[in-house]
Amino acid sequence: MSQIRIENVRKDFGSFTAVRSSTFTIEDGEFFMLLGPSGCGKTTTLRMMAGLELPTSGEIYIDGEEVGMKPASQRDIAFVFQMFALYPHMNVRKNISYPLKSQGMPAAQIRRKVAEVAEILGITEILDRPVGGLSGGDRQRVALGRAIVRDPKAFFMDEPLGALDAEFRERMAEELRALHDRMGATTVYVTHDQLEAMQMGDKIVVMNHGVVEQFGVPQDIYDWPATRFVAEFIGSPPMNFLDFDGMIGTGGTSVMLGGTAQAVPQALEGAHGALSLGVRPEHVRLDDNAPYRGRITATEYLGTTQIVSLATEHGRIKARVSSADRVEVGQNTGLHLDPRTLSLFDAANGRALRSVANQGVLRHG
Ligand code: ATP
Question: What is the pTM of this model?
Answer without folding.
Answer: 0.88
